[in-house]
Design brief:
single chain, Trefoil (Acidic Fibroblast Growth Factor, subunit A), 3 helices, cytokine, IL1/FGF
Length: 200
């Protein structure tokens, strides 16, 4: 008698409070889903337009025709024409909490867009810029994704970028003749490496 009655009342109540019921359901939904969906699907959320500077205040410039990206001293005039130095930093949302914000880089040169990726060549990781657009969604791992982290806890304005598929490897530069070439470099534990410091 009465038990059945109260159960019905609760049920009717929940249906009448449609909005609240939905919100409650949403809360549950968010608690349950991440545990079940162990996937690293990434979805593009926003794009920042920035120049990338190293510790010497030099700008990263991409020259696809020469297959090179390096930090260079750039005049104001060159910066305005901006060939190969105005980057789009594509920030992705992720279904799993990760070590830093997942980002991908692209750059315009002439009328073409190039995206940054990493490839293994003769046993070492090489940075490449390939013609094409950055995807809106990335179903799993990708060689274009880097994790953006603050450079040090006390230096929140500068960042380091860890390659998502090889943890401990970061974007950095190395001197090669007069060039300060963009490379991937292993970070030794607890070391602060200024060649990895990038300001946006």
């Amino acid at each position: 008698g009465r038990v059945k009655m109260s159960a019905e009342e609760i049920l009717v109540c929940a249906v009448e409070l449609g909005k609240n019921f939905c919100l409650y359901f949403d809360d549950l939904f968010f608690i349950i889903i991440p545990a079940e969906l162990e996937c690293d699907a990434l979805c593009k959320e926003k794009t920042l337009h920035r120049v990338l500077r190293n510790v010497n205040s030099q700008l990263l410039v991409v020259r696809p025709d020469l297959n090179v990206a390096a930090f260079e001293d750039v005049t104001d005039q060159e910066m305005q024409s901006g060939k190969g130095m105005h980057f789009s930093i594509h920030c992705y949302k992720t279904t799993t909490p990760l070590a830093g914000m997942p980002v991908a880089f692209s750059v315009q040169v002439e009328d073409k867009s190039y995206y940054m990726c990493c490839e293994r060549e003769r046993g070492e990781m090489i940075i490449r810029f390939k013609e094409g657009e950055v995807p809106k969604e990335i179903p799993g791992e990708s060689n274009i994704i880097f994790f953006k982290k603050t450079f040090t806890s006390c230096c929140s304005k500068a960042f380091k970028f860890e390659y998502s598929m090889e943890r401990g490897m970061f974007l950095a530069f190395e001197e090669e003749g007069y060039l300060r070439k963009l490379i991937l470099k292993k970070l030794s534990k607890d070391e602060v490496d200024e060649t990895m410091k990038i300001s946006l």
